[in-house]
Design a protein that fits this description.
The complex is a heterodimer of chains A (307) and B (145). Chain A has 307 residues and is mostly helical. Chain A is built from 11 helices and no strands. In chain A, 74% of the residues lie in helices and 0% in strands. The mean pLDDT of chain A is 87. Chain B has one domain: Rossmann fold, CATH 3.40.50.12280. Classes of the chains: A mainly alpha (307), B alpha/beta (145).
Chain lengths: 307, 145
């Protein structure tokens, strides 16, 4: 029973609320960096409520089941990942063998669901966006795995999130050493691509392919995709904090540290978004398989050396 | 006015379609996104696809080639959706009123909610037009009660 409560309260409600706040924060910081005023605090909520109240159009000749279930698939997987992360953050004893692997698998599904929706929507621009998303997954997934491998090596080859957290509580955070810093740099670049933020938003480039993957989505199915993207803004920084910076704690002064960690990582992602132009898809693939891959391998080697 | 409509008024997403305009109105639309006029304060953003939009913003004298296309775009807009005609050309065809290529003004092709005159309209005029649209939506929803 308590597990279901975790899924509903922490996995969905808390993550979505933090995600809405993060989404507002992102738009506000972007506006302030461009000397604009920016949207009001409740803007993400207005957007979602408005989209839920609009007509949902299904394009002619499209498999209705695939087209409409793709957003639900993505939302469900994000909710599951955040449940696992919150359970381990609040109660490290509740971990099980291989939950790190489960999290890594589930983190790919949001991109997959957008690909399914894009290919299902029978629009040439959406197919183009979906194929770009596929190439992007192929390019960032291996460096991301190597970056996640570094905490695993340093934590004594444990693939339990809870054990990684308690190891960090005793021996200091993994993000402190040389290999940890390198792995964190690699991971944050991959997270940028996973969220679909500007240097790597080739899949839904609004000016070239006018929305890309999401071009045919409208009304409540678009709203679910928006909620999924807002929740990713909470889940992915939380994942980075758990594996590199010792998780979140809410007792006394530690609550302030936790807030600083989260806002710091979010701010870093937003600043990367606002100071870079969009790269072309071949540049993105070359970037991830070239310099980022070298950095990731270097981090793994350093971790084996014990640095 | 119910929750749905309140949310709609606070987040109008705009899709811009040019039906053969001279690009002057289109540049003035981009002016609305700059620091001086920042319309994101009111929750308005330009979107890339008509399926995401609440407002169809039309510029340009509606040419013969564009008439079937603007009709299709209008049909693809998820309802409730609104149409704003912008600039002298889409209001009354402007200097092309006697042209063989512009048989009809925009409001004879699709229903138009708000007209923004000017050649090109200033960004202030566009914001005033959006305020008119919001007041119109409010008035019709109260009339329905």
């Amino acid at each position: 029973m308590s597990d279901i409560l975790y899924l509903i309260i922490y996995g969905f409600v808390v993550t979505a609320l933090v995600g809405f706040l993060a989404s507002w924060f992102e738009r506000k910081i972007t506006a302030r960096l461009q000397y604009r005023v920016g949207p009001p605090l409740l803007q993400p909520v207005y957007d979602i409520v408005k989209l839920l109240g609009k007509e949902t159009l299904v394009p002619f000749g499209v498999s209705k089941a695939t087209f409409l279930s793709a957003p639900l698939l993505g939302l469900a997987s994000v909710a599951l990942v955040s449940t696992l992360l919150w359970v381990n953050t609040l109660n490290p004893g509740k971990t099980f063998i291989g939950d790190l692997v489960v999290v890594l698998y589930l983190l790919t599904i949001p991109s997959m669901s957008m690909m399914i929706g894009g290919f299902a929507s029978r629009n040439p621009l959406a197919s183009l966006g979906a194929s770009r998303e596929m190439k992007l997954i192929l390019s960032y997934e291996l460096p991301f795995l190597l970056a996640v491998f570094v905490p695993v090596i340093k934590g004594g080859f444990s693939i339990k999130l809870g054990e990684l957290l308690s190891f960090q509580a005793q021996n200091g955070v993994f993000g402190g050493g040389a290999s940890g810093v390198l792995a964190f740099v690699v991971a944050i670049l991959c997270v940028q691509a996973k969220i679909g933020f500007v240097p790597f938003d080739v899949a839904e480039a609004e000016t070239e392919i006018s929305g890309g993957l999401l071009i045919e989505y409208s009304g409540s199915s678009l709203a679910i995709f928006k909620v999924m993207k807002n929740m990713l803004l909470c889940t992915l920084p939380l994942f980075l904090i758990v594996i590199f910076f010792g998780g979140l704690r809410f007792d006394g002064i530690n609550a302030l540290y936790s807030l600083l960690k989260y806002i710091g990582i979010l701010f870093l992602i937003i600043v990367i978004k606002n100071t870079n132009p969009r790269v072309r898809i071949d540049h993105a693939v070359r970037f991830f398989w070239g310099p980022v891959m070298v950095l990731a391998i270097l981090a793994v080697v350093l971790a084996f050396k014990g640095l | 006015m119910n929750l749905k409509q309140k949310a709609l008024l606070k987040s109008l997403w705009v899709f811009h379609m040019s039906t053969g305009s001279c690009n002057n109105c289109d540049i003035e639309i981009i002016d609305c996104l700059t620091p001086r006029h920042d319309i994101e304060r009111f929750g308005m953003v330009l979107v890339g696809s008509i399926k995401h939009a609440d407002v169809l913003l039309v510029t340009g004298s509606v040419t013969r080639k564009c008439i079937p296309r603007i009709k299709r775009i209008y049909e693809q807009m998820p309802k409730p959706g609104f149409v704003v005609a912008m600039g002298e050309c889409s209001l009354s065809r402007g200097m092309y009123i006697n042209s063989y290529n512009c048989p009809l003004p925009l409001d004879k092709v699709i229903p138009v909610d708000v007209y923004v005159p000017g050649c090109p309209p200033r960004p202030e005029a566009m914001i005033a037009g959006i305020v008119k649209l919001i007041e119109k939506i409010k008035a019709t929803s109260e009339g329905k009660k």
